[in-house]
Design goal:
two-stranded antiparallel ribbon; globular
């Protein structure tokens, strides 16, 4: 057991979890089970469906989808350490229904009308053109298919988005952060229909925190020490939006 723990620790940082692997408890930075609990009540039918998970990380959500007996879950994950974590986990939960490729969101055009359900969980803001990304996701869905979209944004009622001048909450690859109403507009302009807000709640510092498995810093280190409504850069602290939409 100790040897297994040491081998799994060598694959750190573990961002998504938690996992219990061969008696070893992996406490990842994210309590992704909290997010899944918010989502599960609003899931579309997954049984027998072809599913795409974009930016799948170590496959946490893919393993949760497997419980619903899909035909196939394909994860897109170009970061090698996360793909290695997935392969290690899959040795303890082998299934031909779970597959991962090093392709990224830029390869979505290769999947024209391929999937019944697409999950985009926490990647939209990492790319320069979120509307193009949404349009490409719609193209990869079969008619009548469903997009599950989870992303960060900013508080506010107006349909606006901000672009951080440099880093945002310590992250340098953040491009556009919308209000909820702006995100809905992006989906509608990308020709999605039946847009539904599943949740705007999250556990913040209890849901994303530093652990032995993830490293010494996390969200708390990147918020203003005196006002947690702001990031340490002085920008509005992130909100998280979870939505569902369909392709006609």
């Amino acid at each position: 057991l100790e040897e297994l723990g040491e081998k799994l620790m060598k694959l750190a940082p573990w961002r998504k979890g938690p996992f219990r692997v061969g008696g070893v408890d992996i406490e990842a930075e994210w309590r992704s089970d909290y997010k899944w609990q918010r989502l599960e009540k609003a899931l579309p039918e997954l049984r027998g469906r072809r599913i795409l998970d974009i930016g799948a990380n170590n496959g946490y959500f893919m393993f949760r989808m497997l419980e619903h007996e899909p035909e196939l879950v394909l994860g897109l994950e170009p970061t090698q350490i996360y793909a290695a974590q997935f392969e290690a986990l899959k040795k303890f939960c082998p299934s031909p229904k779970l597959q991962m490729t090093s392709w990224g969101v830029e390869h979505l055009e290769a999947f024209d009308r391929c999937f019944d359900v697409i999950f985009s969980m926490g990647i939209l803001y990492h790319h320069r053109s979120p509307l193009q990304q949404l349009y490409d996701m719609r193209g990869a869905l079969r008619p009548g298919g469903t997009l599950i979209l989870e992303t960060i944004g900013i508080p506010g009622e107006e349909p606006v988005a901000i672009t951080p001048p440099d880093r945002y909450a310590g992250m340098k690859n953040i491009w556009l952060l919308p209000t909820l109403s702006m995100l809905i507009t992006w989906l509608e302009r990308s020709k999605f229909i039946d847009v539904e807000v599943i949740s705007t709640e999250w556990g913040e510092l209890s849901e994303q925190r530093a652990t032995e498995w993830s490293g010494v810093v996390s969200l708390a280190d990147f918020l203003d020490a005196d006002n947690q409504e702001l990031t340490k850069e002085g920008l509005l602290a992130p909100k998280r939006f979870l939505l569902k939409a369909s392709r006609k």
